[in-house]
Amino acid sequence: MYDEELEKAMLYYVIFKQEDYLLDENDFVSDRHQKIINVINGLKVEKQEISVFSIKSKIKANQGQVLKYLATLGDYVQIESADSIYNRLMELSKKRKLFNLLQNRTMEISDCENIDILAQEIVKQINEIEHVNEKERTFAQQFSDVVTKMEEDCNKGMDYSLYTRNTRLR
After folding, report:
1. Which of 48, 86, 131, 134 is deepest in the core (most CB within 10 A)?
2. DSSP readout, 51-101?
3. pTM for the whole structure
């Protein structure tokens, strides 16, 4: 449930390609990557530029090593898009969160007086895990997706004509 190269690729897209994803330290396993994403999130809150140099200035470590490490993040980007990397990283993150949740709640089952309430709580937490970190889509992105889908459907022969009583509108 851990892929170091995937984590590095995601950081590359966030830092160098300025991709904007909802990520937190729990989405990463590596301590180093957790520190980097925390710094990135801090920079976002402060409305500062996200760059190698702004990240380097916030990390309390050997500055030369930090720069060298950040510079190598691009080595782990394959031919995948940022969205594909993000989706794969979120799947691993969700698996870890679900595993930890179930592991922690397993002990409570034997001592539970009302299993229905416990089951509802667990289902609620599972749903929260499922929907955490979903990338918010802007209206423009949603509109673009709908138009793209309509175009694909039209190319497949779907009819999006509007009919009135006496005429057909296109």
Report:
1. 86
2. -HHHHHHHS-S-HHHHHHHHHTGGGG--S--HHHHHHHHHHHHHHHHHHHH
3. 0.66
